[in-house]
Design a protein that fits this description.
alpha+beta
Length: about 250
């Protein structure tokens, strides 16, 4: 993933930049309590510039439940406020309680030299782990619905991303690689994480092995359940694609 992400940064790619202005602030939201008002221009979050709405959403998802420092500009004056994005906001309000828009958006072509791209790839990898963790938590607490995608859905998404260019495709490939690594390490039968769980169990039992037949049976049942889940998700992917005219 680090190599793929670094390559994605080095390949010339287009991005949209512009000032991000607060259009609406929900009453009694974290943004309202921090003193943000419509017309404020979001300059930076935790010292990182906010070039577009996509990066703004990403910074917020990275810091759910954590206090962040937001630099804003209004009528030429700059000030700093602190707020904490919510894990489970009321419907339609978002984590901070603001609606934003971009002023004078412009499309620019960017590329990064390799000596900057590699550290950026490492940072992006670590951020992806945080985003993955936060996404799981929001699904568990019911903020967002549980969404699973199988091989058919991944193939469709890959085709859509490929149309955006080689840079986004490299980022998507890195994202898939990271997700597969995380899932494979979960303590589920038939996965590497399941085998590690048995090794740790044997260690806790001071070297007393689980009978090989029992372990094999657990892994076989787990593998059958995994295949069943893949079939169900694949069926849902096909129904969704056909239903949307894809």
């Amino acid at each position: 993933p680090i190599v793929l992400l670094a390559a994605a940064f080095m390949v010339p790619h287009t991005t949209v930049i512009g000032e991000v202005e607060i259009e609406e602030v929900v009453a009694d939201s974290p943004a309202a309590r921090a003193g943000l008002v419509p017309g404020d221009i979001l300059v930076a979050i935790n010292g990182k510039p906010v070039p577009n709405t996509g990066e703004l959403n990403r910074y917020i998802r990275l810091n759910l439940g954590k206090e962040i420092t937001v630099a804003v500009k209004h009528d030429g004056a700059t000030r700093t406020v602190r707020l904490t994005p919510r894990w489970n906001p009321p419907p339609g309000q978002g984590a901070t309680g603001i609606a934003v828009k971009m002023l004078a958006p412009a499309i620019v072509v960017e590329k990064v030299p390799f000596w900057r791209a590699i550290p950026m790839g490492v940072t992006e990898l670590l951020d992806t782990f945080v985003l993955f963790k936060n996404a799981i938590i929001t699904m568990i607490i019911g903020t967002v619905p549980v969404q699973l995608t199988g091989p058919v859905g991944i193939a469709q998404m890959t085709g859509e991303v490929a149309q955006a260019g080689i840079g986004p495709l490299l980022e998507f490939a890195a994202f898939l690689s990271i997700n597969l690594a995380i899932i494979n390490m979960l303590p589920l039968p038939a996965l590497d994480g399941g085998r590690i769980a048995f090794v740790l169990l044997e260690w806790a039992r001071r070297g007393k092995r689980i009978p090989p037949k029992v372990e094999a049976l657990v892994h076989t049942i787990g593998f059958a359940m995994l295949l069943g889940l893949i079939l169900i998700v694949t069926y849902q992917d096909i129904i969704r694609i056909v239903g949307s005219g894809g």
